[in-house]
Amino acid sequence: MEVAASAKTGGDWAERTYEAMAPVYDDFTAHHDYEGWLADLLTALELRGLKGRRLLDVGCGTGKSFMPMLPRGWEVTGCDISPAMLGLAREKAGEAVRLEVADMLELPRFGEFDLVWALDDAINYLLSPEELERALAGMRANLAPGGLLLFDVNELLAYRTFFAETVVVERGGRRLIWNGLARPDVAPGSICESRLEVVRESEDTEPGEAPEHTHRQRHFTEAEVLVALERAGLECLDVYGIYTDGILKQPLDHTIHTKAIYIARSTA
Ligand SMILES: C[S@@+](CC[C@H](N)C(=O)[O-])C[C@H]1O[C@@H](n2cnc3c(N)ncnc32)[C@H](O)[C@@H]1O
């Protein structure tokens, strides 16, 4: 197992991971239906009185989690710890979006936003409840009065399945091999790893430009998330569960849902 001696925080690990993964990220996640997912998230947010059109997308990656917001008239700021991921986001969005390199553990105040979100496990790259609280406090500081925060976290089931399995995605002349290293009975609150290997499918295709790298994520229990929200000055409004179909369900059921979605607002 690769141990990055200089990696002190979840941010350090995530930067290393996504600088390596960036060239294959969109291929690996090509089956994710962001249009449908985001439409459902917006419906849930509207039930909580979402107003305005200013979005801060924390851990925006290559832009998949904000691109569907542009035709809806949203003014978007995206930030991520990986310059390589942001470079790909810039190619998609052009100058229509403000993009900043930032660690969510040291999130600057970019402005006032009606909606701050962090999607598709970005939060799970934080490696302790203390890091979670710090990141949430930074997100809260970017909320406009009445603004809403939404994020998802992987449920234990995701670590006991996806992070414990080998998954192969073949796309663009490359085979992307996800080698989950977790045990199928991994305990709540564990840190789990998976290695992603990129293999050329034939000698005719270009060499894969993404080196093998490790994803390191922490599972956060619902209780840990609720405590971190409270300590960060946020009130939890809703908790949903989703399975791989992306449809939001209540109540969250740890035995069948692979992700939890939290919606919160500032208590101040
Ligand atoms: C699974 S990707 C999700 C990207 C995008 N939100 C999406 O839905 O496609 C997780 C992203 O979170 C970013 N990330 C992880 N930890 C971070 C941190 N501490 N600060 C900022 N970005 C971080 C990674 O660089 C990566 O781009």
Tell me briefly what this model is.
With 268 residues, the chain is an alpha/beta fold.
Write a structural description:
The protein is of the alpha/beta class and 268 residues long. The chain contains six helices and eleven strands. β6 and β7 (174-180) form a beta hairpin. α1 packs across α3 (83-93) and α4 (129-140) crosses α6. The chain is globular, with a radius of gyration of 18 Å. The protein starts with 9 loop residues before the first helix and ends with a strand. Bound molecules: S-adenosylmethionine. Residues 10-11, 14, 18, 59-61, 64-65, 80-82, 85, 103-105, 119-122, 125 line the site of S-adenosylmethionine (SAM).
Q: What compounds are bound to the protein?
A: S-adenosylmethionine
Query: What integer value in Å does the Rg equal?
Result: 18 Å
Give the rounded overall mean pLDDT: 94
Helix content: 25-40%
Chain-wise SSE layout:
Elements: H1 10-28, H2 34-47, E1 54-58, E2 75-80, H3 83-93, E3 98-101, E4 113-118, H4 129-140, E5 143-154, H5 156-160, E6 166-171, E7 174-180, E8 191-200, E9 213-218, H6 222-231, E10 234-242, E11 259-266
Parallel strand pairs: 1-2, 1-4, 2-3, 4-5
Antiparallel strand pairs: 5-11, 6-7, 7-8, 8-9, 10-11
Helix pairs in contact: 1-3, 4-6
Task: For the structure shown, list the relevant keywords.
binds S-adenosylmethionine; single chain; globular; 29% strand; four-stranded antiparallel beta sheet; 268 residues; alpha/beta; 6 helices; seven-stranded mixed beta sheet; 11 strands
